[in-house]
Amino acid sequence: MRRLILSAAIPALMLGACSTMPGAQDPAEVSVPVAQASMPNFPADLTPAGVAAADDHLALEVVEGAEAMAFVARSNERALATLEGDPRYEPFRQQAEAILTATDRIPAPSFLGDGIGNFWQDATNPKGLWRRTTLESYASGNTEWETLLDIDALARAEGRDWVFKGASCLPPAETRCLINLSDGGKDAVVVREFDLTTKTFVEGGFVLPEGKHRISWLDADTLLVATDFGPGTLTESGYPYIVKTLKRGQTLAQATEVYRGEAGDGGYGVSASVFRDGDGAVQAVIFNRPLDTFRSERWEWVDGRPVRLKLPERVSLYGTMGSLLIFSPEQTWSMGTDYAAGSLLSFPLVELREGGAVTLSNQARQIFEPGPRQSISQVAVFGDRVAVATNDNVNGQLSIFKNTGEWGWAQRQVAVSPNSAVGLGDSSKARNELFVSSQGFLTPPTIGLLNVDFLVERHQTETAASPNSIIELRSAPPKFDASTHRVEQYEATSTDGTKIPYFVVMPRDLALDGTAPTILFGYGGFQISFPPAYKPEMGKLWLENGGVFVQANIRGGGEFGPGWHQAALNENRQRAFDDFAAVAEDLIARGITSPRHLGIYGRSNGGVLTSVSITQRPELFNAAVIESPLIDMLRYHEMPAGASWIGEYGDPRIPEEAAWIAEYSAYQRLSPEVAYPRVYITTNTRDDRVHPGHSRKFAARLEAQGHDHLYFEDTAGGHSNDADPVANARRWARHYVYLAQQLMD
């Protein structure tokens, strides 16, 4: 079971009405240029020992340490007084909660057996209900839901802060499922087997203790499990590197090893993918052994032994089509013929096996090759065709490609809304059906059902869109008045001449006098793309109040394929920061906003971006929401699960790489001589993905150097902040109050 994502992975921020609040700094008051300012906490020795010796806040890395929790309590008291004491807080909270718990939201559907599954949260059920219905009932105006598992009731009964983290059900019947339950929203989960026919946990069924597991069903009585099998079975990032078969009734100690990586492996841990046909029969089992964040070895399990596949180290696997593997190389790759990075390919698995010979088949190998401003965003594989969602200059398109063997892959374009994001939801090989979503900055999401069996002739490649291919099932009602705004796409020129696209959602009658309060959002990492997306909270609380929202598609993302991402890796990380600054400068040059009214927002990797932007270019901004961030980049590998991202940022233990990281790491580069805007740093004690020590230490150093700032640390929710929509409303309200104080007052 998978969930259809109907909104951007990281929502934008919103603001509300103005009131006078003191304390907003003008970034023009920088007393010493950044390049000339002293950095008293910059380590003279960039070795790990030297970095640690120069760090006066190491105690704040102890997640629940006495000194750390005292700092959190003191900081929270001040932040809550400033933010929740603002008269705008309660209206913001109420409006955000109304949106986040609205019963007219689209229930995100997934295929579940012969029905439709959904996980639902609202004000009555903040922890959520896992439920199901029929397709006919889902498409009707009055859906009748059957509750499978009530997480609120389970949490009350067991006295635990359970957060539902999804379920994996065994095809084709999908009546036996592995339920993932997180304590307080952490990535680590407890796994329990659940029976959908009785709607109870299976007595004596599969149970795994809390951990960052990688689990796949092999058959009704066997799991493929990568987990903590005891001392010495995890990488330095805390992820597993051993896969074992776990039979029903066995303990983890009794499981049988089938694949082993190495303790020094990077990335997110070894895993096993089981690819099946529409009837649930296994077509291939492939082990993924990550070497770092992006490079991996792939091994196929053949006759009880792993056989290495001759795939490039940077590659995305999408599924199997009979004996064919459907994948996309993320680097230029040669297999008799050269294939471009970012193309979509199909190869017989037997050819890809180490020592395997080229078959006599005339099967066409290349399905699709994107153009220079295109990229593949999502792929769904069926019995004889694939659905491919692409971005063309960061706008969504959708095509179906049918395998005609030696004749190649016939293409039929599917009609979708222009200037929108197109998302592929759950798919069913058995039904040849696929959920498709569409949305834009000012256009609420719709969800439809696409049957991929519509006619694609043997020799046909049709570029005209096929009308009425997608049957609309649901359309979300508007949550704000979109008639007041328009969307434009511009380009900024970065320091090396690269054109950086960005979207601006602005009032139709905006006066280009630099006074518009503006939020600039960016991420720029991990090949994650940010196409247009409907953000109802931002629209209601920000756009309706005349604000401007900007989304920058900087390098490091995946908007233009693997090359766009790889251009900002490791020693080239500065390009992402330069791109973001170039967009800010372009906004100011166009008169859309000015430094006094320009704020930035980023979370997770976006926290690297925003913290660096504030320390490198404080004169450009008057606000920054820095959420769940990485900030101490010279010690990020020391804080779990930081070492898994070495492929993105580099390894601070290597002198050459430590040197380029030190050029931007915001924690070390803070200076008491520079006037930074008052920033708002926020994180979560239960975040076991990005350690809260980053946020705590940055706030503590700002305080020690005399810089005004706000720091708030929530105690539940985890990295994704999806534990509770009611709590999430409070979180957003705090963000918006801060931004209103900085940009509107």
Describe the structure.
The protein is an alpha+beta fold. 19% of the residues lie in helices and 31% in strands. The protein is built from 15 helices and 40 strands. An eight-stranded mixed sheet has the order 33-34-36-35-37-38-39-40, with helices on both faces. The longest helix has 19 residues. The radius of gyration is 25 Å and the shape is globular.
Percent of residues in helices comes to: 10-25%
Biggest β-sheet description = 8 strands, mixed
First-last Cα distance: 47 Å
- Derived structural class: alpha+beta
The main sheet orders its strands as: 33-34-36-35-37-38-39-40
List the helices and strands and how they pair.
Elements: H1 48-53, H2 66-83, H3 89-100, E1 110-112, E2 115-120, E3 129-133, H4 135-139, E4 146-150, H5 151-158, E5 162-169, E6 176-183, E7 189-195, E8 200-201, E9 207-211, E10 214-219, E11 222-226, E12 242-247, E13 256-260, E14 271-276, E15 282-290, E16 296-302, E17 305-308, E18 315-321, E19 324-329, E20 333-334, E21 338-339, E22 344-348, H6 349-352, E23 366-368, E24 374-381, E25 385-392, E26 396-403, E27 409-414, E28 421-428, E29 433-439, E30 446-451, E31 462-466, E32 470-475, E33 485-493, E34 499-507, E35 518-521, H7 536-541, E36 548-552, H8 562-566, H9 574-589, E37 598-603, H10 605-616, E38 623-627, H11 646-649, H12 655-662, H13 666-669, E39 679-684, H14 693-704, E40 709-714, H15 725-743
Parallel strand pairs: 27-31, 35-36, 35-37, 37-38, 38-39, 39-40
Antiparallel strand pairs: 1-2, 2-3, 3-4, 5-6, 6-7, 7-8, 7-9, 10-11, 11-12, 12-13, 14-15, 15-16, 16-17, 18-19, 19-22, 20-21, 22-23, 24-25, 25-26, 26-27, 28-29, 29-30, 30-32, 33-34, 34-36
